[in-house]
Amino acid sequence: AGCHGYTWNPIIQKSEARRSGAAALERELLEEYCFGRQQLVELCGYASAVAVTKAFPLPSLSRKQRTVLVVCGPEQNGAVGLACARHLRVFEYQPSVFSPARPADPLHRDLTTQCEKMDIPFLSFLPAEVRLIDDAYGLVVDAVLGPGVRPAEAGGPCARALTTMKRLSIPLVSLDVPSGWDAQAGGDVEDALQPDVLVSLAAPKSCARRFSGRHHFVAGRFVPDEVRRKFALRLPEYSGTDCVAAL
């Protein structure tokens, strides 16, 4: 569990072999630099929300377009999604959250409480009729699965949510990797989410080379310089005090 903080869902350990680079970077931050999991989730969630504001600036949006559905899975990407939703609310967007499979771990519980205390609605189900989602929201944030986590490992509710999300016509923002993509090879073009915006957390994964959407941001300013050198990360220059950079 690193130096301190929350323990984590075993789904992460199952997938580490398929995302060894991302897992090694995360272990370095947790064990050598004593970042806490909640701290990393908060940094990534805040940066993800900032990326949304850059891709979809509030002044350019109609009232309907300011509504954001954040779909949060049961592991770390889902926790980042919850933090993202909270920050979007602070930035005066109108987020709602759907969690296909709510985990009982303390981190998800705490982040859920924070969202609820800020009057962020939680959907009890995701409509199977995509037109209802397209009509109700301006965009969707995909925080369902993390690097290397396959839909079958996350369970039926997540797989069903992804099936619905693939059919949406409103913009889709994926956090770290599009859910269901292999972190190394990417996704099957015909049967994978194709987001309009990708927010790579800490550093882009290999699969990002296959991303063909409109905007690609990296949210890794918090990664220490020595860690960047150790892992040979070629990260962009960040402007001013920005926590994300466009690629």
UniProtKB/TrEMBL annotation:
<comment type="function">
    <text>May accelerate cholesterol efflux from endothelial cells to high-density lipoprotein (HDL) and thereby regulates angiogenesis. May orchestrate hematopoietic stem and progenitor cell emergence from the hemogenic endothelium, a type of specialized endothelium manifesting hematopoietic potential. YJEFN3-mediated cholesterol efflux activates endothelial SREBF2, the master transcription factor for cholesterol biosynthesis, which in turn transactivates NOTCH and promotes hematopoietic stem and progenitor cell emergence. May play a role in spermiogenesis and oogenesis.</text>
</comment>
<dbReference type="GO" id="GO:0052856">
    <property type="term" value="F:NAD(P)HX epimerase activity"/>
</dbReference>
<feature type="domain" description="YjeF N-terminal">
    <location>
        <begin position="22"/>
        <end position="235"/>
    </location>
</feature>
<protein>
    <recommendedName>
        <fullName>YjeF N-terminal domain-containing protein 3</fullName>
    </recommendedName>
</protein>
<dbReference type="InterPro" id="IPR036652">
    <property type="entry name" value="YjeF_N_dom_sf"/>
</dbReference>
<dbReference type="InterPro" id="IPR004443">
    <property type="entry name" value="YjeF_N_dom"/>
</dbReference>
<dbReference type="GO" id="GO:0005739">
    <property type="term" value="C:mitochondrion"/>
</dbReference>
<dbReference type="InterPro" id="IPR032976">
    <property type="entry name" value="YJEFN_prot_NAXE-like"/>
</dbReference>
<comment type="subunit">
    <text>Interacts with APOA1. Binds to HDL.</text>
</comment>
<dbReference type="Pfam" id="PF03853">
    <property type="entry name" value="YjeF_N"/>
</dbReference>
